[in-house]
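Researcher: Let's do a round of design. I'm pasting the structure tokens now; please hold your answer until I've finished.
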């Protein structure tokens, strides 16, 4: 009986020891901005973008997990004449170096329409849904997901997976989706008018007929060209060694 009690208590004690000093902090900010651009830099976690309203009201909710081994994470914002910045940092660190631990900040931002949004993360994922703005996403290792978007989209990453669903909107500007080793999957409407160029040294998958061009002694070593309908808008998908996929969804009228 005595042994059984020791074994039951030990996991509870271990759990309590491992969680000493762990605390979540929730922060909320809301305000009207005059800037035409929003720049988000979060090197310590995920960023979620959601549509807010038709006015200039911006709101964000941040959850800070304080498991720092050195210094303390915080989030701040400031506005210039043209740009509203949301950024995360770690204060009171030794030698001002980046510390690797489990501390993180995850941010959800409610964005008004017609604001140019730029987001940058390290290994945090970026998830965007329902925005009515032009969008640029950069991440090193984080996954990227964009859905129900109304506006230009451009993405850049190194190893993360990128999944984009474009609505039936044609633009004079070229949209680019780039990665070094990550997979890129783009889904477009059957009603869209797109010229798509897909370049990689890995696999190319397409729901549309394509022309394949090989590049000997270079990387990426092949390019697929898809002309869909009037092909009046351009899209470029580039990855050094990641898979590229172009999918179709049927738009019902």
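Researcher: That's everything. Go ahead.
Model: Designed sequence:
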């Amino acid at each position: 009986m005595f042994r059984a009690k020791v074994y039951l208590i030990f996991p509870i004690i271990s759990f309590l020891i491992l969680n000493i000093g762990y605390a979540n902090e929730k922060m909320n900010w809301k305000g009207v901005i005059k800037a035409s651009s929003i720049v988000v830099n979060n090197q310590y976690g995920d960023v979620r973008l959601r549509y807010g309203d038709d006015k200039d009201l911006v709101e964000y909710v941040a959850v800070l997990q304080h498991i720092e081994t050195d210094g303390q994470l915080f989030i701040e914002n400031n506005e210039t004449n043209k740009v509203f910045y949301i950024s995360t940092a770690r204060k009171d660190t030794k030698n001002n170096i980046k510390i690797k631990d489990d501390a993180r900040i995850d941010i959800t931002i409610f964005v008004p329409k017609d604001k140019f949004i730029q987001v940058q993360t390290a290994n945090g994922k970026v998830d965007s849904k329902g925005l009515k703005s032009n969008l640029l996403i950069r991440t090193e290792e984080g996954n990227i997901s964009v859905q129900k978007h109304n506006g230009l989209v451009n993405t850049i990453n190194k190893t993360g997976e990128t999944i984009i669903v474009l609505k039936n909107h044609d633009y004079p500007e070229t949209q680019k989706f780039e990665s070094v080793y990550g997979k890129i999957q783009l889904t477009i409407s059957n009603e869209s008018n797109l010229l798509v160029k897909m370049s990689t040294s890995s696999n190319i998958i397409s729901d549309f007929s394509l022309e394949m061009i090989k590049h000997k002694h270079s990387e990426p070593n092949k390019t697929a060209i898809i002309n869909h309908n009037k092909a009046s808008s351009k899209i470029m998908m580039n990855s050094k060694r990641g898979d590229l996929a172009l999918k179709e969804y049927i738009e019902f009228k």
